[in-house]
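Please review this one:
***
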Amino acid sequence: MQVHRAVAGVARRAVLHRSASVPKLPIGPFRIPLVCHLHASWEEHLTDQQDKLSIGKVFSLERCFSVDDVHSFSRLCNISDPVYLDSAGTQKHEFHACRVPELLYSGLFPAIIGTNFPGSIYVSQKLDFRSPVFVGESLRAEVKAISVRKFRDKYRVEYTTFCWKCGDILVVEGIAVALLPSLLQGINRSQVEGLKDNLTNSTCSVDV
């Protein structure tokens, strides 16, 4: 019996010595950084301050072309038709001023889309010209989104396109299709890639 008591006393002293030599660690909570992989659409995580394209949204641009604009465009496109180059040639065709080339003012449509959605690719355009445009006339071009769908890593958007002169005279109408890198207005391609990277591999922390 005395032997058992002696062994028990030695074992107890060993345990106490071992526990005294082990440093005490602080008890949680701890914040452990983790890499979070987000599987939802990256655009859903952006703030509501960003202006997002939706069906029915309208964008417009106003412009008035000068004689210098017409001459510069004619030189670039190698246009020699006197209807576009001098008022004398225009008067022979019963007009009183230089006529603006149709493709010059219809270029306002891709300008609107590219300005609001940098990096867009203009895919197609159907145009029906209704009335001539002359130098000095005020124009207002407008595009309206009528179809939006995902296409690989871009968005295929279909627009109605209209242009009026002098307030309410329709000069051209049609349908345009463009591929957009993002539905967020004013976001260019490099910003899109940066936002995707930041939201795909973002660092968060949890308490344990």
Remarks:
- Strands lie at 31-37, 58-64, 121-129, 138-151, 154-165, 169-180, 201-207.
